[in-house]
């Protein structure tokens, strides 16, 4: 993948596809990102990934939108 970002889609091979509604997808993304933050902390994340800080503002915006717009009964 690191050598194919500029390749046209037709040159790739589809290996997985899925269709999910927004609510469980947003919840899964939020929970996974939050677990990364809890596991590594924001400083640890930056040490590991170096080029980018943890997307704290983006994660909080996702949480806010998810709770406001999605009828999610799961714990947050």
Description of the structure:
The chain has 76 residues and is mostly helical. Helix content is 55%, strand content 0%. The protein contains 2 helices and no strands. Helix 1 (22-49) runs antiparallel to helix 2. The longest helix has 28 residues, at 22-49. The mean pLDDT is 85.
- Low-confidence segments, ≥5 residues, pLDDT <50? none
Task: Report the principal-axis shape.
Answer: flat
Summarize the main sheet: none
Sequence of secondary-structure elements = HH
How many β-strand runs? 0
Secondary structure category = mainly alpha
Number of helices: 2
Portion of residues in helices?
55-70%
Mean pLDDT: 85
Strand content: under 5%
Cα Rg: 16 Å
Distance between the termini: 33 Å
Structure at a glance:
With 76 residues, the chain is an all-alpha fold. Helices cover 55% and strands 0% of the residues.
List keywords for this structure.
76 residues; flat; mainly alpha; 0% strand
Secondary structure elements and their pairing?
Blueprint (H helix, E strand, L loop, with lengths): L21 H28 L6 H14 L7
Helix pairs in contact: 1-2
